[in-house]
Design goal:
Length: 220
């Protein structure tokens, strides 16, 4: 246990030294990432524009610090920003955007099982074939973030629960690699995702109540 804390302390010390060269671009990415989350919590479609620019910056930053899967993840985020915008604008049966939904526990258990297997396979490949830092953690956060971003685009309520766990694990990765502002951002994320979950759940209940009223009126 003492070796773990010594390693963590050394990582933090080294990280502060490396952070200076990354600060400017990282600061821009952090501000845009914050804008994305706040707008997403409110269900504002422009969250996807902020996401696109922020992830473009992070794609380069993560590549420079050898978080290879995190870099690839952000290329995916850029594509999902376009998809998410389209879904919130033109998705759904009526092509007027998607509503917030909640998926069954059994569906989530299947998603977790499949994603975990994929993460282990990718982590093993990265550990044996690449110079990636923290290959298994990197692969796990990447794979679950890929799946969870899709849930955001589909407006699945439980995406916030996944983000809580992903963000908690990511904090250690970012501190270890000198991305201090990003680590701080993810600490804030942990608190904000809780509010995001509550806001989306409230909106979902309002939508369900409105749908019930509409059905009742149509039956009369």
């Amino acid at each position: 246990m003492s070796e773990f804390w010594l390693t963590l302390a050394n990582s933090v010390t080294a990280a502060f030294g490396e952070a200076q060269a990354l600060t400017a671009w990282e600061a821009v990415a952090v501000l845009l990432a914050m804008a994305y989350l706040i707008l997403a919590m409110k269900g504002n479609i422009w969250c996807w524009a902020a996401a696109f620019i922020s992830t473009a910056i992070y794609t380069v930053l993560f590549w420079k610090v050898s978080l290879l899967m995190e870099s690839v993840l952000n290329v995916y985020y850029m594509a999902m920003a376009i998809y998410g915008y389209w879904m919130w604008k033109r998705g759904g049966k009526e092509h007027d955007g998607v509503n917030i939904v909640s998926w069954r526990l059994s569906t989530h258990l299947k998603l977790i099982a499949v994603t975990t297997i994929i993460a282990l396979l990718i982590g093993h490949f990265m550990a044996t074939q690449t110079q990636a830092a923290f290959p298994y953690l990197d692969a796990a956060t990447t794979c679950f973030a890929v799946m969870t971003t899709y849930l955001v685009a589909k407006k699945v309520l439980e995406n916030w629960i996944y983000w809580f766990v992903i963000d908690a694990v990511s904090i250690y990765l970012y501190i270890s690699k000198g991305l201090m502002l990003t680590a701080i951002l993810f600490v804030l994320y942990i608190g904000m995702v809780v509010f995001g979950y509550m806001m989306w759940r409230s909106k979902m209940k309002d939508q369900q109540a409105a749908d019930e009223i509409s059905l009742s009126a149509g039956a009369v």
